[in-house]
């Protein structure tokens, strides 16, 4: 393109973008401010900057992501998913996260992208590394396969679409980037806790090692800087914190819930056996051991307990309540109020209406089994199976399969004959 | 009357039709580029992956490259047609202001093309947004050219000015302005989620509320326009066409939201949740979303045509001293 024409166009563009308030700054990751100004881990501004620097060194920025070899993250995939969206001459797509995900999940993966306020439910906040629909035990991380499945299938009944039309390599790149955002978010939490618990103020000493006193005779203090580059001890601690996070993800494959062969009903196409299994499941569903009725209601319409929260909304609610109760003083009060005002309205976790046959985590029998076995991480839905390998669960696997069969039959059951609430359940529901 | 007929050239009118007919696909193809996120399929402009625009092997390309380059080729065709329009208008058209207007159309297409190109060169979403806003404006100019070069424009008898006609004109003009504001709001709704600044959320939320509010205002104006057309004996067919387009647009707008973001919370509570997950970037989504963009432009130009026609009947812009040497703009309007 002609240089003169290009210059004119450039100047014109500057004027237009200036007039529309456009800024040329590259996108940045932001800190989790709820965490930074909460009562649990109040973090001074100096530490906030230092934490951001450490995170920048460990993970790069949205346009130039970086991952330490210890994380095991594939930098090639990260670069494919990060940055602005474009296509190279061979047709390979880049900037996939910005193209497909960030408008809902946000640049930081905080679930607060531009469209998020209008979505039902709010998009997932990746920063805690907690995912609902997975094949692993409740506290465990999801496997890559779990994340891949959610991306390909989407989440029916929510705004999360299926990305089944994307080439597999692109989906894998997105899975890697989602994990990267979780690693980064978890590391931020770990650093915040570390700074709060192990660093803080220390007395300033002179060249003889004596404390320096101020005009009133009190020892002068300063914050111990978070500076792993020059502090080998801090470097070690941070390595350990990162290793702990990475181990959690690496162990996911060992935490997959594999149903015992002998507990799986052998032939679901046998209507008689299925009906028997569903009948047993019905008893459990309305019984006090499984107590599904507490939340899903006496009709399975999801009209039981409605006033609980998932962990993401609960954290925001607690923060909002603490700000309402005591906003603090001066700049802290201003910061806390600003953060509180930036949050979305808190929403209750509404139990699933099981009579519609819409199962967000997938409608295969194994998907429902995993939901009943491990519960739904981050939500009030508890697991009926053991919380970890070798632990004791509330129900046997056979009983859980019975509930699976009953849940699958619920959309076809006559809703006018619901189970009458037992006294104990009535109390819980009310 | 005979004098008026001599001032217009059927060839100019035909060419204006050709330009408008080529611009409409350009508009919806542009919408398709945004819908499919194909805007950055090439990082260069005026070339496409190093090829001069006409020489890129478009028909053997696929996916976003096919979509983006198709848009570029259509833009090029429209640009050539705009150059042709200027030539023919200056050769055949005697009305000075129409000749100037043809030049304005050419300038419009150049600016529009440069905006599109700069969006690519700087990879700047804000420019894509502005490019999306100015596209329908250019389409409106093309349609205005069709109207003002038509035989009807020259032959139509002046209407006796009455408050009803003026009210009809005000309604049509206001509907046009609202339709254009709605297109701007729509462009912000489409592009702002992809902005990376801190204010993107606030911009998107404000644009969504404004978009809904303007939709209500346009529906009300559409109904009023039909009612007023009946009262002042204006041809009702075009108003019904506008009404039908608005109706279709409302359905497409709701569908666009659903195929992109599912049901909002209030709607899920009223009607229940969707039983499926949308598939990102599938053909159905592309058709629905792009149709919403295209019909929006049609609403704009239909209401503009209505406004121009009644303005012509009321002889707005025609000085009382028609033919005076002091008023070149006023001569044989």
Automatic annotation (TrEMBL), chain A:
Any one Gene Ontology molecular-function term assigned to this protein's record: heme binding
**Which top-rank group of organisms is this from?**
Bacteria
The residue ranges of the Cytochrome c domain are: 85-182, 276-411
List the keywords (alphabetical). Heme, Iron, Metal-binding
Spell out where the chain crosses the membrane: none
A Pfam family per the record: Cytochrome_CBB3
- How is this protein named in the record? Cytochrome c
Q: Which organism is it from?
A: Bythopirellula polymerisocia
TrEMBL record, chain B:
* Main location per the UniProt record: membrane
Report the Pfam families cross-referenced here: COX15-CtaA (PF02628)
Whether Methyltransferase counts among this entry's keywords is no
**Which pathway does it operate in?**
Porphyrin-containing compound metabolism
What Gene Ontology biological process does one annotation of this record name?
A: heme A biosynthetic process
Q: How does it sit in the membrane?
A: Multi-pass membrane protein
Q: Which GO terms describe its molecular function?
A: metal ion binding; oxidoreductase activity
Q: List the keywords (alphabetical).
A: Cell membrane, Disulfide bond, Heme biosynthesis, Iron, Membrane, Metal-binding, Oxidoreductase, Transmembrane, Transmembrane helix
Q: Does the keyword Thylakoid apply?
A: no
Q: Where in the cell is it found?
A: Membrane
Per the record, its GO cellular-component terms are: membrane
- Could you list the residue ranges that cross the membrane? 12-31, 73-91, 103-122, 128-148, 168-188, 208-227, 239-263, 283-308
The name of this protein is Cytochrome oxidase assembly protein
Species assigned in the record: Bythopirellula polymerisocia
């Amino acid at each position: 393109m002609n240089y003169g024409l290009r210059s004119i166009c450039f100047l014109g563009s500057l004027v237009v973008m200036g007039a529309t308030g456009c800024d040329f700054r590259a996108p940045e990751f932001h800190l989790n401010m709820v965490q930074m100004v909460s009562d649990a881990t109040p973090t001074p501004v100096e530490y906030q900057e230092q934490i951001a620097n450490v995170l920048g060194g460990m993970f790069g920025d949205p346009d130039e992501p970086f991952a330490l070899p210890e994380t095991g993250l594939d930098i090639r995939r990260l670069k494919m998913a990060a940055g602005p969206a474009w296509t190279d001459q061979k047709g390979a797509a880049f900037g996939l996260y910005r193209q497909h995900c960030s408008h809902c999940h946000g640049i930081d993966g905080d679930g607060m992208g531009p469209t998020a306020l209008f979505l039902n439910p709010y998009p997932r906040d990746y920063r805690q590394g907690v995912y609902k629909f997975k094949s692993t035990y409740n506290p465990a991380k999801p496997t890559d396969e779990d994340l891949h499945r959610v991306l390909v299938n989407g989440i029916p009944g929510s705004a999360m679409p299926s990305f089944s039309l994307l080439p597999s390599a692109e989906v894998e790149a997105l899975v890697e980037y989602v994990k990267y955002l979780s690693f980064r978010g978890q590391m931020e939490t770990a650093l915040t806790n570390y700074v709060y618990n192990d660093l803080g103020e220390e007395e300033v000493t002179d060249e003889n090692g004596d404390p320096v006193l101020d005009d009133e005779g009190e020892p002068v203090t300063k914050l111990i800087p978070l500076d792993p580059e020059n502090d080998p001890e801090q470097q070690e601690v941070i390595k350990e914190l990162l290793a702990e996070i990475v181990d959690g993800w690496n162990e996911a494959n060992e935490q997959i819930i594999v149903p015992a062969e002998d507990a799986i009903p052998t032939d679901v196409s046998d209507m008689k056996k299925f009906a028997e299994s569903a009948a047993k499941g019905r008893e459990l569903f309305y019984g006090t051991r499984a107590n599904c009725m507490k939340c899903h209601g006496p009709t399975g319409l999801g009209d039981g307990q409605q006033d609980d929260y998932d962990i993401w909304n609960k954290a925001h609610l607690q923060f909002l309540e603490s700000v309402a109760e005591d906003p603090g003083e001066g700049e802290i009060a201003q910061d806390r109020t600003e953060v509180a005002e930036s949050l979305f309205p808190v929403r209750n976790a509404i139990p699933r209406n099981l009579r519609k046959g819409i199962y967000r985590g997938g409608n295969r029998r194994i998907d429902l089994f995993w939901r009943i076995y491990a519960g739904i991480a981050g939500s009030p839905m508890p697991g009926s199976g053991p919380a970890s390998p070798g632990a004791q669960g509330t129900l046997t696997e056979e009983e859980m399969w019975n509930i699976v069969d009953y849940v699958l039959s619920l959309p076809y059951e006559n809703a006018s004959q619901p189970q009458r609430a037992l006294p104990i359940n009535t109390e819980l529901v009310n | 009357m005979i004098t008026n007929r001599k001032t217009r050239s059927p060839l100019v009118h035909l060419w204006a039709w050709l330009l408008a007919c080529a611009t409409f696909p350009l508009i919806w193809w542009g919408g398709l580029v945004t819908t499919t996120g194909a805007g950055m399929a090439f990082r260069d402009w005026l070339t496409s992956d190093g090829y001069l625009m006409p020489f890129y092997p478009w028909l053997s390309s696929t996916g976003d490259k096919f979509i983006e380059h198709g848009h570029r080729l259509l833009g090029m065709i429209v640009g050539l047609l705009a150059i042709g329009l200027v030539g023919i208008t200056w050769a055949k058209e005697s009305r000075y202001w129409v000749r100037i207007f043809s030049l304005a159309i050419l300038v419009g297409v150049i600016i529009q093309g440069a905006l599109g190109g700069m969006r690519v060169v700087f990879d700047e979403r804000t420019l894509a947004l502005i490019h999306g806003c100015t596209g329908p404006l250019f389409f409106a100019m093309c349609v205005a050219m069709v109207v003002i070069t038509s035989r009807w424009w020259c032959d139509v008898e002046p209407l006796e000015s009455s408050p009803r006609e003026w009210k009809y004109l005000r309604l049509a003009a206001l509907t046009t302005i609202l339709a254009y504001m709605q297109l701007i709001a729509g462009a912000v709704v489409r592009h702002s989620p992809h902005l990376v600044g801190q204010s993107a959320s606030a911009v998107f939320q404000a644009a969504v509320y404004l978009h809904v509010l303007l939709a209500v205002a346009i529906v009300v104006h559409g109904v009023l326009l039909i009612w007023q057309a009946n009262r002042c004996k204006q041809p009702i067919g075009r108003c019904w066409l506008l009404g039908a387009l608005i109706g279709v647009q409302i359905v497409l707008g709701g569908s666009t939201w659903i195929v992109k973001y599912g049901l909002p919370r209030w709607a899920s509570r009223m009607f229940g949740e969707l039983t499926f997950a949308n598939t990102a970037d599938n053909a159905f989504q592309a058709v629905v979303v792009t149709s919403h963009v295209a019909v929006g432009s049609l609403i704009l130009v239909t209401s503009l045509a209505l406004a121009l026609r009644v303005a012509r009947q009321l002889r707005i812009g025609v000085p009382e001293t028609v033919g005076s040497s002091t008023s070149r703009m006023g001569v044989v309007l």
